[in-house]
Each structure stands twice: as C-alpha cells, then as structure tokens.
C-alpha cells in the first residue's frame, strides 16, 4: 500500500458520521456570506442593501487574479453589508441576506439531477466556467481552482491527482460525497483533465474507505485514463506535498510550486464543484459539511447553503450538547477552534467538530526530554523541538536556516510530544515572523 | 453566552503519550534483570536497589521543593528510573552510605543543578556511578560472586569478574559463555544478566520507547573492533562475544546510552554516537588501565551529543540539492 | 638550585617569547578606531536596548561620531542629559528633544470588556493574535499575556492582576520603544511626557463602528466626534472610527475628557478637579489612571 515516506502519524480515526446519507439542511432565516472565503484578495460586493437576489446570483466579484467570485446561496433581500466574525475570530466583510422560503434560481442553472457526461467545451471555456462559478479548494485551504488549473508558463502538468484522502480524523464529508455522487466525480475528473490537457488522473483514497474505493473503481472502468489508488491510512496524507509523494513518489522541491513535479492536486469536493459548474452551470452555493463529535446526538453529513451559521447546522444535528467545550471548524488536527457558533459556513468548511471538556483541554506542559518523537513524526523532516526553543528565544534568522518555512502546520509534532509541549504554536509564531522578514528582504 | 468556548491552536487532539509512560516502560523493562540480580546476589541486591531508589526520589523531592521551589516532578517516574539504573551499576555489597552519596551526586549534581529532567547534559545515573568509582575505588571494585539466594550482604564472598580476567589475558579462567549470558558471574548487580537485559530491550523496541540505532551500533562496533583485535592476536585479546556479554556493555548499550536526554535525536547522529561509544569502550577495556569503560565511553559521548545534534540534521523534505 | 634555575629560564623564556608574539600581533593587526567612539560609549547608558534604532550602544556611538550633526540621533534612555554630554564630547550642537513615555491605548479591563471565549495555549500575545481575534469581542484590544512585559528591559511594565492589563511605571520607562514593537496589536505609543507628566490621550484602538465597539467594551471610543468639537486647538482628529489626540497640538485643557461619553479619553497626573474632588473615585482615576469607568 502506498503512502508518503517521512514522518506522519495515525491518530484514532473516529469517523463517527461515516456512511450517514447526505441530508439537506432546511433554509435558515438569514445567511451571512463572507467575502474572504478563499485565499487571496477578498471579493468586492456588487449588490447593495435592499437588493433582491436570486439563488446563484453573483453578489461579489473576484478582486484580482487570486480571488474568487461569490454567489448568493439563497433567494432574498440583502439586509446589509456588514462585518461578522469569521472562523479566525476576526471580523470580516459579509453580505447578510434575509432568506425567502421559496428558492428562485437564476435562469442558467440546470436544476435536474440527471447525469450529463458529455462536455464539448474547450479547456479555456471550462476554466472560464469554473472561474465564474467561484470554485475554490474545498478541503480547507480554499485556494481558487481556476488559478490551480492555469499553471504558470514553463510548467507542464502531466497528471491530475484527486485528493480524496480525507486523512483528518472525524471528517467524512468527502467520503459520503464519493459514495453518493460517484459518477459525477468521475465526470468532473474527466472535465478537469480536459481543462488541464492531461491524459492521466489518479483518485487517491485512503483505504479506510473501502466502499468508496470499490465504487469509484467500478465507475472508472469505462475511463481508462482515470485510476483509483488506495493509500495506507497515514496523516497528513491529504497535504499536497505528501499526496504527490504517495502517488507519484516525487518530492516537491522546497520553495517550488507542486506543479514542477507534473502533478496538479485538487480536492474531490472541488472536482464535484467543477462538474456542477461546467455541466449544470451551478456556482458554489452549497457544500457537504459533516457535523460530528462524540456527544453529538445526530452526527451526519449535511448539505447546507454557504452562509448558514454553524449554530443552525448544530441545531439540525440534534442541538449542541451541554458538555461541549470546543467547536472546531474542520478536523481536529488542522481545524480552527471557533469563538462562537454564529460563524457562517464557507466554501472551505469541511466539518464542524464538537468536543467535550476533557477531550478539548490541553494537558500540562513539561520539560522537553529530547526524545526525538517530534522529529520522527514531522513529515517535512524538520526538528520541531529545536524550532520551538529558537522561537522562544526570538532567533528568527536561525529558524530560517532550520527551514521553518517548510513547515506545513500539520500538527504531528504537538500530537506526539510526550511532554505535551505546544510545538506548533511556537512554530507558527516563528513562521509568521520569518515570513515577514523574508518579505521585507524581497521588498528592499 | 454563559458557556464560553475554548479556543486554541490546532491540533486539538493529542496522542496520549507521556513522559511517565515512557519512564515506566523502561522501569518495566528493567524488572527481568532485577529479578535475576535478586536471585544471584540476594539480600545485597535488594538493599542497594531499594536504598538507591528511595534516596534518589527523596533528593529529587527535597531539591525541587526547597531549593528550586517548583512543583514536584516525581510523578514522571524519572527519579525512580535514575535510582534503579544507579543501583544496577553498583556492586551488591556496597555500603549503603556510599549508595546514598551516589544518589545525591546523580540527582543533585547531574540532574537538578541543570534544571531537572530534560536539561542535563550527562546521564545522571552514570555520573553517580563514575563519581563513586573514582571516590571509592576499593569498595566499587570488589565484586561479590553470584550465589543463588545469597543472604550475605557486606560480607559476601568476592572474586574476579570476567572483565579483569580478560584484562590479564587468562582466557582459560573465563566463566562459561552460558553463565555470562544468564548472569551467573561477578559484576555490578544489574549488568550481569545479559539475557534479561536483551529481553527488556526487546520490550522497549516493541513499545517504541527506543529504536535499534543506538544499541545495535554500539554492540556491532564493539563486536567488530574486538573481532579485529582477536584476529590480529588471539593470545592477548579476548574473543568478541565475551566482550559483548561481560561488564556493563548490555546494560549500557540498551538502557544507559539510549537515555533520551543525553543521546542525539536524529537517527544518523545516533549511529555516530553508538559507534563512538563502542570504540571508546573497547579502547578503555583493551588499552586503558580500567577493566571497564562503558560508563566513561557513554559520558564522553554525552558531552559530544550537542555537537552531533548540531551537525546531524534530518533529511528535509524536498531539499534542493546544491549544485 | 640547578633545577630551579632551569625552571625559571624555561618558564620565563616561554613567557617572554609568547608576550612578544602577542605584542607583535597586536601591533600588526591593530585596527584604527576613532577614540571618540569609546568616549561617547562611556557616557551612554549601556543598556543596548535598541531604542535609538541602532543594534547597541556602540553602534549608536559610532553613528554619533560619524554624523555631521546630532539631529535625529537620540538616546531615549539617557534623554537630554546624556545627549548634552555626547554633544559636548563631540563639540556639536545639542538638539533638545521632549522626553517621551510609553502609554497603553487600551482600557479593556476584565470589568469593561466581557470575555467571549477562553484561550488555551502558549501565553504569548503574538501566538494568540495569530490564532484569532482575542478572547473578547474587541479584536483590537489588549490580549493581556504580557509580550510587552517580557521585552521590557527596564522593569517598567507589569500586568495588573485585577484589570488584566499592563501598567507602565513612568519612573522606570525610558521610552526605548521595545513594547511598541512587541505588541502585536500596536497598543503602545510613545507620547510626549508633558509638563509634570500630565498627559491626555485616547485609551482605545478599536476601529469598529461605534455600536459594535461599545458592545464589545464599555469604554471603547465610538468615534462620536464630541471631543473633536470641543477641542479648541485642533488637536483631535477622527480616522477609521477612532479619535486620536496629537500630543504636539494638545494644550491639556481637558475639555475632551469631560466631553467623552464613554470615558475613553484619559487624563494622567492632573490634580483632582474641584467639582469631583469629593468623589474618591475620580481622584483615583486622576492619580493612577486605572479606574476610568466611573465618572
């Protein structure tokens, strides 16, 4: 079984919501659609207070190349353009819409669920459609897909890797999406291959999802260019660099774009969004979010509109248990802890994880005993123990020499540390500082 | 909202590994060797071991509580482990007051003065032992002979250890290889039972407390080095297998050299460290004036460890090769 | 006798040879340095705090010696006295500078600013600000984990346990600016110390709209503009929903303090007002500047 070679861990999988059929969350009374749902510049709103918008209508335009369009996920009246708390606890511009109970879609969206296999568009037209639909990486990083699909000149993509590893514990939304929309994903892969002009695609799935592997293998039989590759369960396999190594055995050189290895990695959710954008003209206005946690009454995979508040989702999943001490947007390894549950769902919200008090707390910190477990666990070959002490001493130059910028913030080091040391906290501070120093040097 | 949520950086889960888990695993791994020692050295072994552990724990508590004024770190089990390892390096007929001094040096000088667990440069148990060896050479080198269920303590019969026999090149007086393997020879109370120590080492390997790099590189280096000497002159130099099974080599290679705090952190560095210990051990054993050199070898390489850590970096992912 | 003689000759001879080697090397590899650099360095405080924007006192001394005039060169720790002696050493003009002091522009005490979440992790403002907007609804205010206290070399800052905010000890503050650089929220500002240490400033950095800011913190600046209106010296400007008092234009009339509806403008070290003198609370406010909540 293939996997990546360096470091990594195998946390308890806890896929509580696995196999739960996707359920539609009823329309909320109000949605708050954030304008910075993607990495890059926040989108610029094109609607005004009091406007009536239809479902699927463009409400904010991409600002610049690395940015994405944002569409209304509901029909209703724009209450205001205001700042709301996003997952990071900072305030961010959002369009707040009062929802009308009946959806009125924009004309071009094809609403039926019949599979449309054929696509006769040119690669440029496909990318244009994906760009218009505002597709971003649905795994969490939210990088605009049209940018990924247009690699810089001089690079030649050879293979499309569909990231269906879903290596984070608890999360099951991609898994369930594959089970229910398998054929759409295969067609979406085919379309994305056309856009990239590559003739090979690999759908990489960790082998804790055997049903998805069997299903997609069967569905991919007519498509000889699409392979389904089972991977050993190994966190952080869903990391772009790790996945490329696991699938192709090639290392992305430090500081270079992944495309130099000939691979383009797209999340399986984005592939599905590509299918809907190209074949059904449907922009990204909803996504599957898995609501999970050990004491959640009704854990499951829920299809909800972008902008629905996390609270609405939790209510639909049986309400928030009293014991909840931490709400995480995303998985337990890389997700963000939320300051409250009014935060809206974005294109990158893959899951909502509710943790109880004892699970959520950090343990007491002891001295480093130099066991070297963090070095063993680091998938990037760094020395987290050293970087942490350098960060505490503000030795930014030394940290740069120790390759801090290679850190992918996967959290393996903090996970394995027997002294419960907050390694990644310090590494993040160092990465931020060193990043600022490097940017300053470039500007000079 | 009255129920305020906790917010912290990812990761939000922890693997559950802890220092105490690791320390207790090592203590468990030492139990077979302790049992063998109790069998062969009897009462003396029991007394020395319990006094050593008790005084190490006491000194750590007192120093942490009254000198450093910090919270007690006894729970992690590292003081117990230091006491046990110190006892393993002492002869079973050692007067108890010397054991207490050894514990004071190990905990007070080698460990707590650097800031407690994790900050010490040298292995505390070995510092304690070497301090005693230099300060009380006579008591530290009169080794009691093994006798099942021995109830003699200070007055136990003493005799030559295999190492001193090897030093004088009278190989016909070496005990049987099997005796050396199970521990039926003279020596420090915990070092004789090679078989039990290897068993403990395997347990640690399975529990992933240690990796094979350090023990294997030490043992292999000693085997090859002494093998070359043996081939060169069988009259003077002992055979490599006796070297492996005698003295503190097994204990040192499996339990002392692998101490996390004082050994290199990267695998490549660990191999260099192991080779260094092997070479120094053989040099002291064969060419030096002491019959045994494992403790000195480990302490010397402990001192080099920061340097090894600074030069042996792990292989970085996607490292760009310099043209 | 012979042995002693040999020993003396050998040791003495070695000493002489080595001494001459050192002497010759020192002579040969001597680097010329302006002796005035040493002199200037001797009058500097020697804290190497970096407040002058040079890496250390010696670099600052070099800069003083090399530059034409002392304009723009100031050792904030030593202040005008030290700069006067530097100037007399170098025979240059003295450039007087007003003494500055660090002020914290946040009054989000535990009482004024309710907590909305609980932070767990490294006790570092930098780490917390990378993670999220803070454990209160104000994303501009003090995080209270004392990065400023850690960097202060002069022991001039401490965290008040009751308010959870750092307090500047004016007597010890040298205005080196380390806290200004360390605070991830940019809450510290070096302001003119003022006559008899009397100062007026807006103790808030919240750039949210008034209603939001007020909801997050009861003493937030809501940018109502009343202070701007009452100011007769044009010292107050409002930008990004936040009032700012220019300390060069401010004449310390204290009208704005009275006008501010949220008590976000602070006066420090003023004698108690006649009207409010009977009120114990106001007196404390004027003296320590801690309790600005009560009128």
Folded structure, characterized:
The complex is a heterotrimer of chains A (444), B (323) and C (295). Chain A is of the alpha/beta class. Chain A is 28% helix and 19% strand. The longest helix of chain A is centred in the last third of the chain and has 21 residues, at 423-443. In chain B, 59% of the residues lie in helices and 1% in strands. The longest helix of chain B is centred in the N-terminal third of the chain and has 49 residues, at 19-67. Chain B is globular and about 75 Å long. Chain C has 295 residues and is of the alpha+beta class. Chain C folds into 2 domains: 35-90, Electron transport complex subunit B, putative Fe-S cluster (3-methyladenine DNA Glycosylase II, Chain A, domain 3), CATH 1.10.15.40; 100-288, Alpha-Beta Plaits. In chain C, 34% of the residues lie in helices and 12% in strands. Chain C contains 11 helices and 9 strands. Chains in contact: A-B, A-C, B-C. The interface between A and B is large, with 69 and 39 residues. Strand 1 of chain B pairs parallel with strand 2 of chain C.
Q: Low-confidence parts of chain C, pLDDT < 50 over ≥5 residues?
A: 279-295
H/I helix tally of chain B: 13
Strand order of the largest sheet of chain C: 1-5
Greatest interface by residues involved? A-B, 69 and 39 residues
Largest sheet of chain B: none
Q: What's the pLDDT, averaged over the residues of chain B? A: 90
Helix content of chain B: 55-70%
